[in-house]
Design goal:
alpha/beta; Rossmann fold; six-stranded parallel β-sheet; 10 helices; 10 strands
Length: 254
Amino acid sequence: MRIAVAGGTGWVGRLVVDAVRATGHEPVILARSTGVDLVRGSGLDEALTGVPVVIDVSNTSTVNRKTSENFFGAATGNLLAAGQRVGVRHHVALSVVGADRVNWGYYAGKRLQEKLVLDGAVPATVLRSTQFHELAAQMLATIPGPVAVVPQMLSQPIAAHEVAHCLVDLALADPSGRAPEIAGPQQLHMPDMARRLLRARGRHRVVLPVRLPGATGRAMAGGGLLPTGPGPRGKQTFDQWLASSAAQHSTGQR
């Protein structure tokens, strides 16, 4: 079966493409490099013709609410409209655990994406995942200098490749609406993850934990990003990820 992967050239997208191939199916990569522009909607009908399943892991790196909503609104709307026109039978989207409980600009776009997908005409599944192990590396790469200011965030990080395989498993099953949330095997604080990553890389930087202001900061530090019910749990711990080759050069970028 042909399975389209929106954002298939990105960091997570490449893992999903690998997972599709591992199941014996054929990935169809939706990206600018393959002639598809999700935001403009160009090339989608041609790429999706004869494709019954779409996995959307497209992403934008922003903390601005309007930017996030504009991207996810346009990309998701175009994917769903094209999917309805050509007969896509199952649309699977990746979202974030706690997106509805933490008022963060990026999460506003994910909430809009979820609404469009679940209210759309194409049968769909939404998988919410906790933060990936690579988020600590992303934060350190974003903040150069001898001092790394890291938000006080309680998370249950998971290996990205485990989420990729879960997405493919869901894509091959019947549409289920909101799937059980997926999370990692242990709860960790982001400043501690950053310190452990720096030690593993032999680098010396001061990690300064900072609580974001207002309700957003309280929610991030107080468990707003943790799963609220039972669901699949990843096996790879953060320490195991640190010992892997993937951790040595990761910046966590999608």
